[in-house]
Amino acid sequence: MNVARYISQKIDGGADSGSFTSSVTKIAIISIAMGLAVMVVSFAILQGFRNEIQNKIFSFGAHLQISRYDTNNSLEVAPIAAPLLVEELKQFPEVKSTHPFAVKTAIIKTKDEVLGVVLKGIAETDGPSPMRVNMTAGKFLSFPDSAASDDVLVSRKVADKLRLVVGDKALFYFIQTPARIRQFRVSGIYSTGLDEFDEVYVIGDIRQIRELNSPAWPDSLVGGMEVVLKDFDTIDRTADNFYEKLPYDLKIDKITDQYAQLFDWLQLLNRNVIIFLILIIFVATFNMVATIFIMILERTNMIGILKALGATDNQIRRMFFFRGLSLTVRGMLIGNVIAVGFCALQYYFHVIPLDPENYYMDRVPISWDPKMLLLMNAATFVTSLLAVLIPTYLIARIKPVVAIKFD
Fold first, then answer.
1. Are residues 75 and 187 in the same domain?
2. How far is CA 249 from the centre of its chain?
3. Phi/psi at 299 (5° precision)
4. φ, ψ for residue 276 (rounded to 5)?
5. Which residue has the higher pLDDT, 11 or 335?
6. Which letter does DSSP use for residue 125 in this model?
């Protein structure tokens, strides 16, 4: 029988509920539980924010964007031969899918309002467009085989400014030589929550852009290619490979450079949360150290008797170690229940809303990451046990004669 563990269990079960040690023990358990719960919830929310914002950005601009170099710094650039570029991109194992696009500036005129926008033409030649996830009303674009679709998608912000609803028609004026006018029908309304997109872009069929250009582009030409990678973390290495192997007259833009402010903001959030979590771990560790110190002081008489009976310092130290282990496990169980319960409540019922004007989304997001959950539990467990070991070395300095007389 493990004597140290047996005595530890007896101390645990025989503690007076009204004693000072009992109160400190409860505080230690609560400290570990709340510390772990706050860590789990903080990382779940942080990762949720990161995933939500990144997915919104990726749904509109993919990971990499390839276009021709243009010294005019204009949105409308020289076209690229799509079939040749797609064949070259197939050589890269990092590429998941490619999506052709073309853009053209326009002015939308309704009965009461006028607004300048950018018409972005897309196609679904390599699977469904990532833009589909941003739909809030109506239907996504249709791509008939016979002719270019007259449907467009407008953002919620543009629809509100122009007082448009699904099914309305609007005139698009294209300033070029010769000037062109097209009437498009609003088939759907999207919302990314990001002003960089929602205030500027209208989504349409890429064939409309080809027909509007003068001279008209054949079906093989596109304004650029958006590339979705299998792993976003490889974006820097893949972009470097593109620079080395693709034709010299092509420009490769990383989404992290195009919207650097958003990604810098995410990095800032990450640093702030890490500092916050370090402080939480420190407080929980300090509470555990203080709790074991108090237990040792209250049990000084018992320690003296055990030493007089022949118990070694290591045996008594293990006794308090098992005591601290019991508190740690109980605190972690309670903390996990609180954290997972809160995350599930928010994930399924959206009890905490957000202002999308400031946070880019209408609710606090939750991301489930089992690996991170296990990592935080392991960090809490190891840190707490190391904290338990610190005060137990005080036991070696306790003399049996003095300890037995200690009151």
1. yes
2. 35
3. -105, 20
4. -60, -40
5. 335
6. B
Same domain assignment for residues 185 and 303: no
H or E stretch covering 342: helix 313-349
Residue 15 CA, chain-centre distance (Å), reads 45
Residues 6+ apart with CB under 8 A from 160: none
| Cα–Cα dist 104/124, whole Å | 19
Q: Phi then psi for 257, rounded to 5 degrees? A: -85, -35
Q: What is the pLDDT of residue 403?
A: 60
Please report the DSSP string for 25-69 in residue order: HHHHHHHHHHHHHHHHHHHHHHHHHHHHHHHHHHHHH-SEEEEE-
Residue 138 and residue 186: Cα distance in Å, rounded?
8
How many angstroms from the chain centroid is the CA of residue 161?
Answer: 31
The CB density around residue 146, as the number of other CB atoms within 10 Å, is: 4
My answer on whether 316 and 384 are in the same domain is: yes
| DSSP assignment letter at 365 | -
Given a contact cutoff of 8 angstroms between Cβ atoms, the answer to whether 223 and 179 are in contact is no
Domain assignment present for 255: no
The reply to whether 160 falls in a domain is yes
Which residues neighbour 357 within 8 Å (Cβ) at sequence distance 6 or greater?
none
Query: How many angstroms separate the CA atoms of 148 and 140, rounded?
Result: 15
HEC readout, 128-139:
CCHHHHHEEEEC
CB 66 within 8 A of CB 252: yes
- Kindly write down the DSSP assignment for every residue of 78-109, as one continuous string: --EEHHHHHHHHTT-TTEEEEEEEEEEEEEEE
Using CA atoms, how far apart are residues 365 and 49, in angstroms rounded to an integer?
Answer: 6
Beta strand 201-205 pairing with 114-122: parallel
The rounded distance, in Å, linking the Cα atoms of 206 and 80 is 13
Q: Is residue 63 part of a domain?
A: no
340-390 per-position pLDDT tens digit: 999 999 999 999 998 877 777 888 999 988 998 898 888 888 888 887 777
Report the distance separating Cα 302 and Cα 324, nearest Å.
17
